[in-house]
Fold each of these.
Amino acid sequence: MTTTTSSRSTGVGRVLIAVYGLLALAATGRSVFQLFDDFDRAPVAYSLSALAAVVYIVATVALIMPGDVWYRVAWITIGFELLGVLVVGLLSIFDPVLFPAKTVWSMFGRGYGFVPLVLPILGMLWLYRHRARPTAAASAEPRAV
Amino acid sequence: MIEWFTWAQIAVAVVAGLLAVALGLFGRTPDDLTMGATALVTVLLVVQVVVSLLAPAFGNTATGSALEFWVYLVTALIIPPLAIVWGLVDRTRWSTAILGVACLAVAVMLYRMYQIWFVQVA
């Protein structure tokens, strides 16, 4: 196998990767500012911001890289994002005291135009449509058996 | 930050963004128009850096956190050049859409910068 680009990084998937990269950049920028500015004010929210930023970076890389392992990493990170935005979104509405400061996932990502809520769903659809097909993988290899 | 300049800059970024997203969806590969519009957004960001560096010397200081403002501005300045490089390397219509997404992201970030500089709630 000498394929250099994965099927996930073609066509409209490139837009998905670009938006993921953008969100990774935005989340990292905010989290760096929060960590340096006043971490003690809201350690839970700020730690979560940092964690979210790391997850977005890993998800972006996983979407670009070819191979089964990265495909699985993409599923895990994108699944984690969806879980994060749903759990933190609900908690930030029902228990605002827990999240005195904004995170990328607060209020279902309202501060980011709900992109954090929509993106993992689009990402999962994309991954599902581009799952490895056993026949395609087999035909690329010399026929054994 | 100068109020009218910032609004003009946001308007340019929104128009450039919508134009490139639309042209990308219509199947246009990155061309002088969309790349030029994104380059214009970049140039205006550089002007914004100069303006915001000089403004405090004239008594025009950020009402909010200057650190947060600069994190936004520096991050925003990175985005359109990356999209332009992407558009040069990857000659597909999706690169045109990415140019648009980059410009729209810059517009949103400029609006946040505007709030940090001028508007403080509570």
Amino acid sequence: MDAARDELRGVPHQVRDRVTGEVRRETMIINMGPQHPSTHGVLRLLLELDGETVIRCKPIVGYLHTGIEKNTEYRTWVQGVAYVTRADYLSPFFNELAYCLAVERLLGIEAPPRAQVLRVLLCELNRIASHLVWVATGSLELGAVSMMLYGFREREVILDIFEAITGLRMNHSYIRPGGVIMDLPPDGPRMIAKFLDTMPARIDDYERILNDNPIWLERNVGVGKLSAEDALALGVTGPILRSAGVPIDLRKDEPHSGYETYDFEVPVRTEADAYSRYVIRIAEMRESLRIVEQALERLAEPGPVMVEDPKVGWPVKLSVGPDGIGNDEAYLRHIMEESMEALIHHFKMVTQGVRVPEGEVYQAVESPRGELGMYVVSANEHRPYRVKIRDPSFVNLQAVPTMVEGGLIADAIAVIASLDPVMGGVDR
Amino acid sequence: MPVERYEGHLTGRTPEEVEEEVRKGVMLTTMDRAVSWARKQSMWPATFGLACCAIEMMSAGAGRYDLSRWGMELFRASPRQADLMIVAGRVSQKMAPVLRRVYDQMVEPKWVVSMGVCASAGGMFTNYAIVQGVDTIVPVDIYVPGCPPKPEMLMFGILKLHEKIRTTGTIR
Amino acid sequence: MNAAEIAGRIRDHFPDVYVARDEVIVLVDRGELIDALIRLRDQPDLSFGFLSSVTATDHPGKDPRFWIVYELRSVEHAHRLRVKVGLPGDDPHVPSVTSLFPTADWHERETWDLFGVVFDDHPDLDRILLPDDWEGHPLRKDEELGGVGTQYHGAFIPPVDERTMP
């Protein structure tokens, strides 16, 4: 009798409790990840669902834990750059910059002005590249597949510039304590100028595709709201905090490397949803182009790019050879044939490196994801005593339950995409 | 990209292959060659991007270095529908059982490309947290070194894998 | 305010304050940690209401063995401060600050995971970066770096922490 009545109402009869006759309502616990096309890397989400609504969400991280911090304690200070640059692998220059600024503060030195301009130039190009990956993968996850190809197309141009300057497309160990390792190649300024000419039109293209697209608006407007108080309490920084109306940007508040001398704005919105974060990141790309233009003008005057102090500066002079970047012929001749002291000095500097006085320093920079901090402790040795990376994605992911709970499961994807987490930084 | 020249390059068959064919008979070897050709023509990779190498893998699938030339732009999320697993990135101890489980879920025939030095041998991270070489967990067909390897290096590795599949006899 | 001014402002309540490399560092006991953080947050000209990071350093053989480091920042005044708590090696307990700063949740879990420092009254003190059944706390100085020795061309290269520096 119950089964017949259920058939009429469209309720399958197995859903009724056999004893009491009431319709069962249960929540379902599902597991998203760690291998999942839409979770931005190896992030695992435990979701408790009632139908399509998320009741509880627990992010589980640690699937990319690499032990970078422990490894830096067993390597020299310069080798630490190579480790630290792979933490947040979409913004390698920022990792290197924070680490090198911390080491320079411990040493009590400052990089030469041209090196600082180069650092700012490359960091802002990196910011554009990182936001391009964000818009590419975020759009791919929400279904706008063409944006993926456009984002990566522009990024290839930036990676060509990086390859010409540093020799590598990703994870360059270019910024070292004391300056940068090499000056620009002869055609570097021309490549960057050409990029600056074409990029603004491309950003206009992206806005034309996405800004008024009804599907993009549906999926992003009003999704993933995080108020300013919640964001500050949870330690969230970067575009997410600025989308809630709090105008904190460490480039303006705690400037380093000459950022106070550049003319740029910090975009801030008040809606605190995923769409405003998208708008902020696109605007940040434009502002970064302005900074790159100003930095390029300052590079017209030549100068040293590594500090002169022989106990600190990297001894090897590099130049572009027939198969890429390698040792300078004149320098090799000098150390191998002309000067024994230079050879000994080169050997000691490359194998042991600089000895950094005792102390501890916390240095924060504004990476594309938020406040990237390095807490570096030295015990007067040739290698670090402790390097702690305060990664913005690690802290921003704590806000996921607040933003996701109460929404639909499809919105969870949009929320995580708007957070832009990079799991290498989360897990280190 | 360097291409290996071996005897039989122009006819498509090495002397050893010809001898093998004579042994097996014409019917089976033609089917053999057809099956191997079909298998390598459009392998679908499973999404197993972990770290920095994953970004280079995505670049390899994007516009400039186009994996779609070999029918491989379709990265399948479900391992049941994939036949190639490109392990791109460092495999931590916590991720190792997940890797093995995804590999087990893939249906035969399946191949594994270990992309980057972290997946091939632990890379620069010889420490407690990283599996020193993913070949301790799954059988690997091609190792692609680099940190990260340029997309062209990954494509070369995939072409080597195509060669390996093409020259593998599957029907006895 | 710059570092010297901040130090001058808080020296009455916090006797252990020093300034190094333009940073203010305050040493407190673990019993006074919560009160100290509340005072630093509520005083209007300081208003350190943003916790950037919580971490630890390990100095085996010294007393205190663990130093727990809290990086504080003020949103209104844009200045920074560091609070350090020293813990003995055989009793690494410290009160959790998640009631004041919810962001400390994952930072404290990571410090427990990698150092073995127990945060009392933490809502969910579990391992976060390492697998749940991992034994040991790797970032302590008496734990080895790990990794296997590599064989190459007949030569044997030991893991990194067993190699000698030139």
